[in-house]
């Protein structure tokens, strides 16, 4: 066996990304084995017709090259698993749907997951292990950090800077910034489902509503 590929996480995120990963290999003409990794397992099982195993079992597979997509929605947990995989000299795998559109002058870090119907517009820079769920888009001149997560249908308009670990909820809309004053979503901030963000969100703050305001504790 020369290569083996894995989706790390067999919950909803991983199960949604597995067909995308399988399609990508098929398009490339790669017939390598692909499995789920689930640390809760004590023995191999089947999830949606694919073999699922724990991480130690995956490491023991005989293969010259292993590739892993960490499919965990929480950016902090995603980072922990990515660091474990990289410590074991296993390559991060970037997966994107066949309907994903990536325009000119785009940089995307390793280990990213771009679901079907995602659009990344021109002159965008994205860090490692970015997750963009169904029908989300990133418009021109945006900068996105590491371990950022978009739920489905996120509208990230032009000249927006999103810092590491931010989570943007389903259907959220982020107002366009300007070249001299980009709109900023701070480190670890959370934008609630359906929120309309019209101004900067400080690091670690949860915002909800239209217009988006900090969530009262």
From TrEMBL:
<comment type="similarity">
    <text>Belongs to the transferase hexapeptide repeat family.</text>
</comment>
<protein>
    <submittedName>
        <fullName>NeuD/PglB/VioB family sugar acetyltransferase</fullName>
    </submittedName>
</protein>
<dbReference type="InterPro" id="IPR041561">
    <property type="entry name" value="PglD_N"/>
</dbReference>
<dbReference type="Pfam" id="PF17836">
    <property type="entry name" value="PglD_N"/>
</dbReference>
<dbReference type="InterPro" id="IPR050179">
    <property type="entry name" value="Trans_hexapeptide_repeat"/>
</dbReference>
<dbReference type="InterPro" id="IPR020019">
    <property type="entry name" value="AcTrfase_PglD-like"/>
</dbReference>
<dbReference type="InterPro" id="IPR011004">
    <property type="entry name" value="Trimer_LpxA-like_sf"/>
</dbReference>
<feature type="domain" description="PglD N-terminal">
    <location>
        <begin position="6"/>
        <end position="85"/>
    </location>
</feature>
């Amino acid at each position: 066996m020369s290569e083996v590929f894995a989706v790390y996480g067999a919950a909803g995120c991983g199960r949604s990304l597995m067909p995308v990963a399988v399609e990508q290999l098929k398009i490339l003409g790669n017939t390598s084995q692909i499995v789920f990794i689930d640390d809760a397992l004590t023995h191999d099982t089947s999830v949606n017709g694919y073999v699922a195993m724990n991480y130690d079992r995956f490491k023991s597979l005989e293969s010259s090259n292993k590739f892993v997509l960490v499919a965990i929605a929480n950016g902090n947990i995603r980072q922990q698993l990515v660091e474990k995989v990289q410590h074991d000299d296993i390559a991060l795998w970037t997966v994107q749907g066949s309907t994903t559109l990536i325009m000119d002058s785009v940089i995307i870090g390793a280990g990213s997951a771009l679901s079907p119907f995602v659009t990344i517009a021109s002159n965008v820079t994205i860090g490692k292990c970015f997750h963009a769920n169904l029908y989300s888009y990133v418009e021109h001149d945006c900068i996105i950090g590491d371990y950022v997560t978009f739920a489905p249908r996120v509208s990230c308009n032009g000249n927006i800077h999103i810092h590491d670990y931010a989570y943007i909820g389903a259907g959220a809309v982020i107002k366009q910034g300007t070249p001299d004053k980009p709109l900023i979503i701070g480190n670890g901030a959370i934008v609630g489902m359906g929120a309309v963000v019209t101004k900067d969100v400080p690091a670690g703050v949860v915002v909800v509503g239209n217009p988006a305001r900090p969530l009262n504790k």
